[in-house]
TrEMBL record, chains A, B:
Residues 21-104 form the Carboxymuconolactone decarboxylase-like domain. It comes from Candidatus Cerribacteria bacterium 'Amazon FNV 2010 28 9'. It comes from the Bacteria. This is Carboxymuconolactone decarboxylase. SUPFAM superfamilies: AhpD-like. InterPro entries: AhpD-like, CMD-like, Uncharacterised_peroxidase-rel. The lineage of its organism: Bacteria, Candidatus Cerribacteria. It holds the Pfam family CMD. One of its GO terms (molecular function) is peroxiredoxin activity.
Length: 180, 180
């Protein structure tokens, strides 16, 4: 049970933004701009970075839902998502995505972990300023979402089918849920 | 020098949101709602939580600027800020604030670190649902801001006078800087 009184049965961050829509609105707007707005990274790639960071932060609600959204957006290539979560370095993502996921993993630990060499490696494989910016901000923002969701012990479903449905909805975009 | 090409000489997060105002807008709106909007916590207390988390994340730009904003808002009681940064448990903040800062420190590590006992201790000293919510979201959001600022190696001034001036501006609120 969540540490504060949120709408019953509503999972994860949805229950928290319904408790406090004044801040929730900006959290959903940020997710929409960052994960669905214009970017050199595809929506599938951005969801993969979100899932990867959330998995490293052991936030089951966030990694399960964003992995589901990423699988949905990758379509026929959806196996890539589980490969990355299981072992990113041995997965079949491109060298560019490996370099970006490496940066995201450093940001997940702490901002200062990112080095000149990490950035140079990503640039070598074609990452431009906007790609680097979006990678770091996605990793940073999920360091927030994960802590918000677990820090208040919000409801975390365990049925994979629930996440599959959630992923389909999320693939269409992030819209603040209405209050009950 | 920052890892991406941001406006020269502009410090910290300001340079990053000028690079990408589409996401920057929501980051500033979130800070304004969370740190200046209606809350059972005073603005000084909320800035103190932000400074405390940023200090623990070793993000000099964020802790220096939010400590300055908190000192400005605490006025005659401004010494409390440095007491908390030096040794929270021995500082002269109330038992309620100690319980909330303890929760913020747990969130800084990871959401799951927060326990039923941490929440019960805060409630014992009068913290309600909104107080707990805002404490966790401030701690979570600074886990993002800190990583964004340091993960892209944005410009970090070292002169305390610069932060004092910044704190006075921040005490008035968070408004997205215009692009140069």
């Amino acid at each position: 049970m969540a540490y504060i009184q949120v709408p019953e049965g509503v999972p994860g961050i949805r229950s928290l933004v319904m408790f406090r829509p004044e801040t929730g609105k900006h959290l959903y707007d940020l997710a929409q701009a960052l994960l669905r707005g214009e970017s050199p990274l595809t929506e599938a790639e951005r969801e993969l970075i979100a899932a990867y960071v959330s998995y490293r932060n052991d936030c089951m609600f966030c990694w399960s839902s964003h992995a589901a959204a990423s699988r949905c957006l990758y379509g026929d290539e959806k196996n890539i998502v589980d490969e990355v979560l299981n072992d990113m370095h041995r997965s079949n993502v491109s060298d560019k995505m490996k370099a970006l996921l490496n940066i995201a993993g450093k940001v997940q630990i702490l901002g200062k972990e990112v080095t000149d060499e990490d950035i140079a490696e990503a640039r070598k494989h074609g990452a431009d300023d906007r790609t680097l910016h979006d990678t770091v901000l996605i990793a940073a923002s999920f360091s927030m979402f994960n802590r918000y969701v677990d820090g208040l012990a919000s409801f975390t479903p365990t049925d994979p089918v629930v996440y599959e449905e959630m992923g389909k909805r999320m693939a269409k975009g992030y819209v603040l849920p209405q209050q009950q």
